[in-house]
Structures are given as C-alpha cells and as structure tokens.
Amino acid sequence: MRIELRVCQHCYDGEHGNPQKTEITKDMVRCAKQVREYKDLIGLESLYIDMVEEGDPGGAEALPAIVARIENDQVALTDTQLVMEDDNGNMLVYPEPRDILEVLTRNIDQIQQQTRQDVTVELSTEGAELLSA
C-alpha cells in the first residue's frame, strides 16, 4: 500500500490567517512523518508528503488522484487530501481534514501495537477537538 498526503504549504506556514487550520495541517504532517518512519511495521510500501503551493498544476507527486469541487461556478482543486493506493491499484481519497487525521492516527495506533517504542504524536488542541467531534 502507498499513501500520499498533500497539504497546502500556505496553510502549514500560517499564511492564510486561519490558526486552527494551521494547527490541524501541522498535526497531519507530524502524524504522516511518524507513520512514514515506522511504515515497515504495518506493511506500507511508501508514504509521501507533498506541500502544494498556489499555482501548482494540482497533480499529485506520487499517486495520480485529484479531488475537485465546484466553487462559484468554477472547478476548484482540493489542496489538502490523503490518497491511499492498495496493491490492486484501488485508490481511496480523503479530502476532509477530520478523515485524514483519523486515518493517520489509526495507522499510528497500529504501529504502536507492533513496537515497544512510544510512537504517539501529540496533537494540537484543535486537532484533538476535530477528532473528538
């Protein structure tokens, strides 16, 4: 299985003026980095983390899946998404931050069961609240 996390670089850097989204974006990246470090314990082939900036063509770096929506009668590409591809080439795409965090934290839980090391990731208050909602 391969996973790719795509997040908006500007959200990650806090340039959009939405501190809650910035914290949640940072939580997603921290979780993905932890999963990537221990991916072999749960049978993941690879985990990519891509920071997307305005003007990027919208294509994924590793997994060719793009989420879009209609916004003001125009197609808008989703800059934050988690794409998973299984061994048969089937893809699952998660565009919602809550779903992305849930998938990544479940992977961390699976890793925790396979090692004696503490692999937990401290989520921000905003990330923890999002998951408990």
What key phrases describe this protein's structure?
133 residues, globular, 38% helix, four-stranded mixed sheet, alpha+beta, 6 strands
Description:
The chain has 133 residues and is of the alpha+beta class. The protein has one domain. It has four helices and six strands. It has a four-stranded mixed β-sheet. Strands 3-4 form a two-stranded antiparallel ribbon.
Give the number of DSSP strands.
6
Q: Give Rg in angstroms.
A: 15 Å
Ends apart, CA distance between termini: 29 Å
Largest sheet, strands/sense/barrel: 4 strands, mixed
Shape: globular
Report the total helices: 4
SSE series: EHHEEEEEHH
Percentage of residues assigned to helices: 25-40%
As residue ranges, the low-confidence spans are none
Task: Indicate the structural class.
Answer: alpha+beta
Mean pLDDT: 89
